[in-house]
TrEMBL record:
HAMAP family: NDP_kinase
Annotated GO MF terms: ATP binding; metal ion binding; nucleoside diphosphate kinase activity
GO cellular component: cytoplasm; lamellipodium; nucleus; ruffle
Cofactor(s) named in the record: Mg(2+)
Protein residues bound to ATP: K83, F131, R159, T165, R176, N186
Catalytic reaction(s) noted: a 2'-deoxyribonucleoside 5'-diphosphate + ATP = a 2'-deoxyribonucleoside 5'-triphosphate + ADP; a ribonucleoside 5'-diphosphate + ATP = a ribonucleoside 5'-triphosphate + ADP
Official protein name in the record: Nucleoside diphosphate kinase
Domain of life: Eukaryota
Catalytic machinery residues: H189
GO BP: CTP biosynthetic process; determination of left/right symmetry; GTP biosynthetic process; kidney development; positive regulation of adenylate cyclase-activating G protein-coupled receptor signaling pathway; UTP biosynthetic process
Lineage: Eukaryota, Metazoa, Chordata, Craniata, Vertebrata
Leading EC class: transferase
UniProt entry keywords in alphabetical sequence: ATP-binding, Cell cycle, Cell projection, Cytoplasm, Kinase, Magnesium, Metal-binding, Nucleotide-binding, Nucleus, Transferase
Function: Major role in the synthesis of nucleoside triphosphates other than ATP.
């Protein structure tokens, strides 16, 4: 049984197969905490049951192997956002093309003018950094294309596809290595862990905005 609690609700999942990964995507702490001024916002719980794309055998299933490489060998979801500079430079189609050609499945996409409240929740861990105010100004300067992608080890693979935070350190062939020059205009955001992906998806998407659909090409992508 998997449980998750918040000051406003409690969720239980039972009778779930051992090989099914269950994510309960909770609202941010700001949305959960009482008397924050967010009471006018709808509170939703995202429950994602992701079936493994395939059963893996060998070293990749070993605990030590997963810890050393970061590869999980299971189906996951990650949050990707094309930042305002990427939207203005008409890079959205190219970025979507790269993820589709890699074999990942798009389950959510929308164009958003992010509010200050949403951006503060998203970048909460960076709130004490000296560049935080400039980051807020940059991310609110235009629309953002928010996406959720699904696939085998998509969190780690997407980070490889994006390149380093500093474009100068990004290899040619990565998105930032091909399209960015400065850190302050690095085109794209991607979740850095499964846990971050859960949080970010719950911030940017409602449950009914994520679509579970059958990908008929999956048997050509996964062995």
């Amino acid at each position: 049984m998997i449980s998750a609690t918040c000051p406003r609700f409690e969720v239980f999942l039972s009778n779930v197969r051992a090989d099914v990964r269950a994510y309960v995507l909770l609202p941010s702490f700001r949305q959960c905490a009482p008397s924050t001024g967010h009471d006018d916002l709808p509170v939703s719980v995202h429950i994602c049951l992701l079936l493994p794309v395939r059963r893996l055998s060998g070293p990749r299933l070993a605990r030590s192997g997963a810890e050393s490489t970061g590869w999980t060998g299971v189906n996951e979801r990650t949050f990707i956002a094309v930042k305002p500079d990427g939207v203005q430079r008409r890079l959205v189609g190219e970025i979507v093309r790269r993820f589709e050609r890699r074999g990942f499945k798009l389950v959510g996409l929308k164009l958003v003018q992010a509010s200050e409240s949403l951006l503060k929740d998203h970048y909460w861990d960076l709130r004490t950094k000296p560049f935080f105010r400039d980051l807020m100004s940059y991310m609110s300067s235009g629309p953002v294309v928010a996406m959720v992608w699904e696939g085998l080890d998509v969190v780690k693979t997407a980070r490889k596809m994006l390149g380093e935070t500093n474009p100068a350190d990004s290899l040619p062939g990565t998105i930032r290595g091909d399209y960015c020059v400065e850190v302050g205009r690095n085109v794209i955001h991607g979740s850095d862990s499964v846990e971050s992906a859960q949080k970010e998806i719950s911030l940017w998407f409602r449950q009914n905005e994520l679509h579970c659909w059958e990908d008929n090409s999956s048997h050509w992508i996964y062995n």
